[in-house]
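Q: what does this look like with zinc ion bound?
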Amino acid sequence: MLWIDLTHADREPLVFSERPTLAPQSGGEEVVSVGGVEFDGRVERAGRGYLLEGRVQGAAKLHCVRCLAEFDFQFGERLELHLLPSSALPQEEEKRLEMGELEVRYYDEPKLDLAEVAAEQFALTLPMKPLCAETCRGICPQCGANLNLGPCPCPEKSDDRWAPLLHWRPSE
Ligand SMILES: [Zn+2]
Ligand SMILES: [Zn+2]
C-alpha cells in the first residue's frame, strides 16, 4: 500500500517517485519474485478528476513455461490513467467512450494506491506464456532433464518408419 492524496495535485501537479514493493502473486503463478520497482510520474488536475502519467519499471524472475527454469525479465512501461470520482460515473461513461483507449479508474475518496497501480501495470507487461528464450528446448518428457543444458541420456525415441533401415545390411 502506497497511498497518495490526490488533492495535493489540486493547485499544482504532484510529482512522485516511489519504490513500491510488489508481491510475486500480483503477476501470476509464473512469477518467482519482483524487485527494484520504480514508479515515477505526476498527477495533475483534469476535468472532474485527475490525470496520472508515469512509468513503471523493474525486474522480475519468472518461470519458463517450457523448461521450468527461472529467468530474468526486465519491464518498463509508460502509463496514462484518468482518475474520476465515482459520483461522475453515469455522466462520464459516455465521455469515456469518446476518449477511446484511455484507461479510467474511479475513486470514492480522492486517493490512490500507487502500489496497486504498479502491480496492475506489471501484470499487463507479463507475457501470457513466459519463455526463457524463443528457442527454449524445454524438458525431456522421459527424464525431465532441461534440454537447454545439453542432451539427456535417454535413448533417441525410435521412429517406426525408419526401423527397417536399422536392420538393413548390404547383401554380398
Ligand atoms: Zn525455457
Ligand atoms: Zn531424457
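The pocket of zinc ion (ligand 1) is lined by residues 64, 66-67, 69, 131-132, 136 (CB under 6 Å). The radius of gyration is 26 Å.
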